[in-house]
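Box 3.1 A note on notation
Throughout this textbook, protein chains are presented in two layers. The first layer is the amino acid sequence; the second is a token string describing backbone geometry. Keep the layers aligned when reading.
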Amino acid sequence: MVGIKKIWQEVRYTNSYYKKIMLGRIFSGIGVVFFITSLKNFNLGTLLKISVGILIGILFIIKNYTDEQIKEVLIRQKAEETAKEELQKEKEQEIR
């Protein structure tokens, strides 16, 4: 449970950077889609397909970034644990 709290704390701190990247990609994707559709005549069906495609793209982008954040936090936690173990071993050797 402590690990999950630490992960979300780290995600909260790095979230603003990733939000900017996500928003940039989302708006660029929407812009490309509207540019392509403006070249052709489209009806309501294609508009529906476009909106569904945009939503799926947004969900994938958000999922990928949160997965990357959690991986980074887990790597940091593992590094902290190994550093603590090494310090304990060094202290034990100094005591001996």
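The helical segments are 2-39, 44-95. The CA atoms of residues 68 and 74 lie 10 Å apart.
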